[in-house]
Fold each of these.
Amino acid sequence: MNQAKAHLSAITAGSLGDAAFRADYGVDYAYYVGAMANGIHSEEMVIALGSQRILGIFGSGGLHIPRIAEAISRIRQVLPEGPFGVNLLHNPGNPEWEMACVRLCIENQVRVIEASAYINLSPALVYYRASGLAQQPDGTILRRHRLIAKVSRREVAQHFLCPPPENLLQKLLTDGLITAEQAELARQVSMADDITVEGDSGGHTDQGVLACIFRSVVHLRDEIAVKSPIQDQNRYQVRIGAAGGLGTPHAILAAFALGAAYVVTGSVNQSCVEAGTSAAVKKMLGQARISDVATAPSADMFELGAKVQVLKQGSMYAVRAQKLYNLYKQYDSLDDLPEQEITLLEKQVFHQPLAAIWQQTISYFHTLNQPDTITKAEKQPKKKMALIFQWYLGQSSRWAITGDPARNMDYQIWCGSAMGAMNEWLKGTPFEAVENRRVSDIARLLMDGAASLARTALLELLNVVSPENSVFPEHIDSPEQKQESDQKPKVRSKESMDASTKLCLDNSKGFYKKCWDLMPGGSHYNFGDPERPLVIPFNRGDKSRVWDLDGNEHLDLFCKFGALLVGHHNEAYNSSLIEYMNKVTSVDTCDLEVGVCETMVKHIPCAEMVRFCLSGTEAVQNALRLARAFTGKNRFIRFHGHYHGNADNIMGWRKKQDLTYPVPEQFSGDLLDTLGRDPNVITDQSFMLPWNDIDILTETVERYHDEIGAVLMEPLCINGGGIFPVEGYLEKTKALCEKYNIVLIFDEIITGVRLGLGGAQKILGVTPHLATFGKALGGGALPISAIAGRRDIMNLYTRGKVIHAGTFNGYPLGLAAIQTTFRLIEQDPGCYDRMGDIMRQISNVFVKAAKAVDLPLVVQGMPTALVYHSQDTPVMSTEGYSDKVKFCDIIIREIAKRYGIQFSPLSRMYPNLLMSQDDVRFFEERIFDAMENVRKVIDIAFKEGTGR
């Protein structure tokens, strides 16, 4: 007979939180939907919630009194007994509006007000509270007006935990707004029935951590309760609820675990059908990611420096609003602004002359019957500037609400990270589409999900194995059960070559076909990779992931040929570049040049002086020019499999039968030649040798040293297979160069910064005379390259002895990219070890997946720059693996991209600074299906088998 392991009473959404909250407000859940100003949390939303016995708050902030009256009237027609409430947004600049709003609520018997953005109590707020108090026959106090205070600071919460201040009660008595009895009763109750502690949120936010602030306010409540003079019969424990960052069942449950009596959602509801905002905004919110938010100056408290949190993806509001605030802080009046700044503002921000904006501002305040504001501004130029700037901040939220297509890049959309978390949670469900999101459905899904998670957590605490969670809305891909290292991974068997993780790429394929019509070969590059069946276009990225035109998610191990080191959507990197772009765009010499050069000199062993250019090709060609000038000799040595850019003298190589210098018999040197190149450029300028053979190098140098001015190589041959120099090879090469007055150049375009801030030369302990850097030097988002080297060689640039020209050499944004990249790495000294550990795990999974389908695979190179080969043993020479192996490598790359794994051409794999353990899980989920399909394609291509 089976025995129960434990008995656990049912946990439902209706049992979470404080039962008194549900009873007092007449609702089914200890949950309500907080307000968002300007009617975004509309009467339609409030009615939809109230009809399902869920409390909703109308967003009255920023609206005129007649509009608020209209909304209240409509809500009361449908919900005469509630539940519903109205938000009272503190407006210290317009206390008349605040009092009018309170009067309206009292006249229309609005029983619940949510007070937000308060720092101190206002007469209007105390009036609402006190006017609803009455003495009952048993001596207890009836609170007809319930007040929920939303706070984010302990000191503000204290105002609402205590009775209203005496001076405000006396003022209300003097003005005849409350009776003496109401004033006396007010002295015996706290200002608020409930206090919502708000952590990081959309809109106005202190960006606090809910887990810290919440318990602080709870402790404050308990401290005040002990000292309170309120009589026992009227003693009331103020409930403390939680808000901010609540967009998933896990977050809701975490809030209840903190001790929240109730929970509140806010900006996440903007994406719902009933929200009072435009379809364009809802679509943008439905695509938001967790990191797609930024803080920006607020319209209502601009001069105080208050911030709002907004959606930054798809809008320039955060950047432009910050620009306005910076100008406000820097200058005392519009007259002080530089002419170019005014021109920029009128063209890009306001789209009309500032004089016209001022006239509109005057009309606005006259409409509000506040002419004194204009009079004051006319006398105070800085105040006038603030009002003009506030025009943009105020209009931007209205443009978003109305969906003005002409100002879509200026939308101010209040949004917190919870929006992105909710989108991830709803992904793959009918609610992924914002057209299907209804506010009451979202409320139930969140609360039901939290209840389900609570029950599961309790079962786990009782050591009871819980059933597999398959109940929506908990939509989190759980990792597959970890396999023992000696156990062969399980591979699903399929009749079809379409494994379950294969992606639909219809839109991507259609786009690629159009590329062929407009771009030769369908791409902007092709050397070394002439046949690519499919290039997948992407339209967004985050950390190590990118999304294609079909909405598929991919793991980016391509990293733009290894250049992208900072990862996609690196907020610290992006913010730094935007900040500098706001400072200066393009000048001849900028203030970063010395600092960036000093940083490179500090880290790079060979760097005594530095020059900047734009691409790796330019850097290499300039280094060769320096070497020719320094030695007076025109030819240089380069090596098979080493890549040095897109120039005639370094692309391709001669066929063996044409070689007149010593090479081993097995060295073919063949590569399909290209048209359009000077046929004599390779013969005239370079020797191409096999790498890692010091005897061949020595014999060539000794025979032709009068002609050879440089030896050019990758110090670690990543391009040619991930090959290390043999012991002593680099040291002997340098000695040979110094013996014969030859400049040793390390091409660190790939290895520089990607392997470490000092490049491969620091890791290998051999310092060249010159070195070139690019790709990851500036993080990979912007083109920038550099030549660094010995002072006596670099000084040839002085007074034009050697020409180094280029419009964008040392351009400000490129230097800012270098500065930011180095700073991010310096601040995260363990980043290379972390990336290396993740890539080792990915490599191990990759090899297991190959072995599972009986395919050989080896991964070699440096942890942050790896190369895979379809053979059992590491490649020791660039000539050391067959065409068949190379073709199988291409098959792996092309098949893997159809399963959401993007390898770099030439079988390379690169990590970035934002990679995480979740990327290992993602790779493991996809690679086994991909390799099963690879096996099938290889079997078709090579019917004789896969022997190497």
Note: Residues 293-414 form one domain.
Amino acid sequence: MDVGTVLSAAQTLFAAVQSSELKKTCSILGYKSQLDALQVTVSTISTVLRSAEAKQELSDEEIIYVEDLKDAIYEADDLLDEFVTLVEHKKLTEGDKKMRLFSVFKELGVAYKMSSGVEKIKKKLDAIAYNNQFRFKLDPEPTGKGRPESDSCVNAVDIVGREGDLEKIVGMLLDSNVQHDVSFLTIVGLGGLGKTALAQLVYNDARVTSTFSLRLWTCVSDQDKKEPDVKEILGKILASATGRKHEDSTMDRVQSQLREKLANHKYLLVLDDVWTEKRNQWCGLVKYFIGGQKGSRIVVTTRSQKTAKIIGDSSMYELQGLSEENSWRLFERMAFGLNQVNFPDHDLVEMGREIVNVCAHVPLSLRVVGSLLYGQGKSRWSSFQKMGLASIREGENDIMPILKWSYHYLESPLKSCFCYCALFPKDFEIEKEMLISLWMAQGYIVPLDKSQSIEDAGEEYFSILLRRCFFQDIKKDVFGGIDTFKIHDLMHDMAQSVTGKEIYATNTTGGHLDKKVRHLSVASRRRYGEYFFGKNYIRSYVHVDWDVFLFGEVDLFFLEPLVTNCMCLRALDLSWLKIKRLPCSIGKLLHLRYLDLSYNADLEMLPKSITKLYNLQTFKLTGCEKLKELPKDLSKLVNLRVLDIDDCYRLTYMPRGLGKLSSLHRLSNFIVGGKGRNLSWKQWFYGLEDLKALEKLKGSLEIQIRWPKNAKSIVKEDCRRDGLYLRSKEHLNGIWFNFTHEESDGRVDDEVARRLMEELQPHSNLKRFKMQEYHGARMPGWATLLPNLLQLCLFNCDELECLPFLGNLCNLKVLKLLALEKLEYIEENSPSADSSSTPTPQLLCAKTLSYLPSLRVLSLNNLPELKGWRRSLAGVGNDHLNQNLVVSRSNNEAVWQSLPCLSQLKSLEIIGCPKLTCIPLCPSLEWLYIIKSNERLNEKYIMKGMRS
């Protein structure tokens, strides 16, 4: 039982009680004094809980006392949230007049219900708080203890001191004396030593990747199971081998596919975090790995000595703690930072040396404690030295006391945020944005002030937890932002231990749901609705689809009780459940803030009642391929902050009024075009006005331009606007324009296409620009005036003849051109080229020294008319270009210098370019792929020693 999460709930309740809107409404209805009294009570409870939190270890009786407080706090929060929701919803539909508001609530009896409810909950809280038989102090909240400062993350992924271990294990894997077709190697050691990290180093070592033609990685994590789930493990391995899940596959089918996949390879399989301690169970698993070419290896990581001995003593590698020197290197890096300007304080160094010794040279302990003390003063170091080290010594080799000390120093909201991660299975890859949205739904995130958005506050929370080493194994997106992460299994164990019954994660098929459970995750669709046949108080239901053996669909028989019996839900994840219909009763979930219906491919319509979810903040519909339309009154969801409709292929228009969603921060797709066959320009164009009003959009946005059937006629109308539809959206980092043509009366006029694109100029902060099915002959003028652009992709633009000069895109890293049927040259001319005369090689050379200096990847695919890079070079020694471009620089120095030089290009792909005879110089090229193109190009690169 953790007091910190209860204190966080109390602080959330206190913020709700202080709401100006709630106070205003209570004043109108005549019971402001009752609300003020409740505010005093909640404040008292917060101080009681703060005192209880300071004790760290509570007796059984004290735990019961705190749990009673928690239940009462949740009940009060539900009551106030329901009332505020009803008030705000009525104001939205009925207006904000005082007398009208009073009459509405008098008619509904809401005022009486609210008044009696507040009085009832206050008495319950008073009875618990003022009883205080355990004499928790009622001291006021200490001053000067704000949220920890958010700073740049200390690099926690570098591995220190494992070079020798890496060499030994790689040597064992590559030992040519091993006679078996498939042999095992076990890495065994205490939790936190870095077994998984070391296995990852081995897995990605260049010598290993060149030796094994197939590499597979699977996390088993079967500690909590009586016996390993063979079907599940084999399914994971097969998914690792093929890169996709195998739903609706039988056990026999998976076995057959796996053996077929392994048979033709010398493979390396890593089974991470294995706990199987019975020989018969281990033999029942490994029999499926028979096959593969001679020299195939299976690496197992485990904390269990018994597991290692079952696999075989001769193949065991026992991982030890770091040396004293490497332990200090790691701790110093975490506690004092990577780039130390000044030497650390002598006293801190002395305390740090003692801490390193007590941490028993365990990397995870050193990281956690170092990150805990990073940036702290001597008083915090001294406090940890006196109290924290004592509890660590008592735990001997147990790392858990260290982890709990790091957890203890988190602020209460951060404790709730971390503990919420216990909903997900071990080794689960968690999406950062999804998690922050779930935190928002539970009210865990509190912005510093009105100037900070709740999303930015959530990013700050995440950064603090990452720096403190609660998160690891981060993966980044194309912009360098964190996309996904994982939690160390020991951190996961701690999260489960401190949350008690409040969070329940299961992959079983049924059972009784304790009334104390507030957050539930289920990792299976089998008997989906069994937990919901009875009233409960869960605030989260998260479906975790990691079982690849799933059958059938979830129907209304299961969904109805979920809604009717779970009225306290704040977050509901119904993704990947093959849902065809939703119950209309879903609109009764007044508290709901997060709804995920993603990848229910057969879902065609949404019930109208979904627009009654006034509090909804995050709405995900990704992959609902058959969804025909969004609700007409979607604009009523005024608190919506995230709307994800990616891969909803049958959506053809956006409902009107989306511009009213002033809180919307993330919108995956926007469709320009209306419902109907023959539209006026004004009717067709109205959606852009809504898009313009969405001022807070961030991230990436796909804009689908759906030309109407009377596309040609709209050229006659004036389509000029102010061009600010996108230019003011400085936080959008990626835009994809996707043009779609109905069965029209002809191709859209080039002038119309270009005029529209000029009106859609993005902000100069844009980093990624994609365009598909554009039928203009020229790119819009702003396309090469984006100084921060990192990626430019053009697909199926079959009228495009040439691109403008690209040399201004100094940060461009990726350029991809696909299926541009009329493109003859990548660029028309350089800005200084004189079209009336042939440019001199010296001039062109000077202009190309810094040409696209950041470009790393170039892909030219299916460009049948492409002849060269720049039209202005067409007259510069064409014969020599065709014959001697790559073969010899000395033969024609002038021609060589006349070409642009892509000095940093690493990867070049040329597919289906039969007329291409010359390309820019690429002195740093590492990877080349040429196929279905001019044979001379291929011959020239082979002569230069490049592999094609």
Note: Residues 60-94 form the longest helix (35 residues).
